[in-house]
Amino acid sequence: MEGEQKVPGLGDIPLVGWLFKYKSVRKTKTNLMAFIRPVILKNRTIQNQYTSRKYNYLREMQMVEQKEGLTLFRNKEIPVMEEFAAIPPLPPVYRPAGRQPDIDAPSQEIN
Q1: DSSP SS3 for 81
Q2: What pTM value is reported for the model?
Q3: Hey, is 4 helix, strand or coil?
Q4: What is the pLDDT of residues 52-83, one digit of tens each?
C-alpha cells in the first residue's frame, strides 16, 4: 500500500516539490494456514462411506452454485462432478513365481 503526504501547495511545485513530500510504502503479509486432520480408515466399507460422504458434500455444493450461479462466471456452465461410484477393489498383490532369493548369500561386486 502506497501513501503520500505533502504540504498543500508546496508539494505540487515542479522540481522542488519533493522537498515537501513524504512517500511511504507499507507491505502487509498474509499467511495461509491449512489444518490437516488424519483419519484412519480400517476397512473398505468405512473407506467407501467416508469418501462418499465427502464427495457428495462437494457435489451438492457444486449443484447449488450451478443453480444459483456465480458472479465470477456469468453466462458460463458450471461443471458438476459425476455421482459417486464405489471404489473398485485393488488387484491382487504381485507375487513372483519361483524360488525366493537367499538372504545369507554373499553379494557379488561388479567391477
Answers
A1: coil
A2: 0.44
A3: strand
A4: 899 999 999 988 888 887 666 666 777 788 88
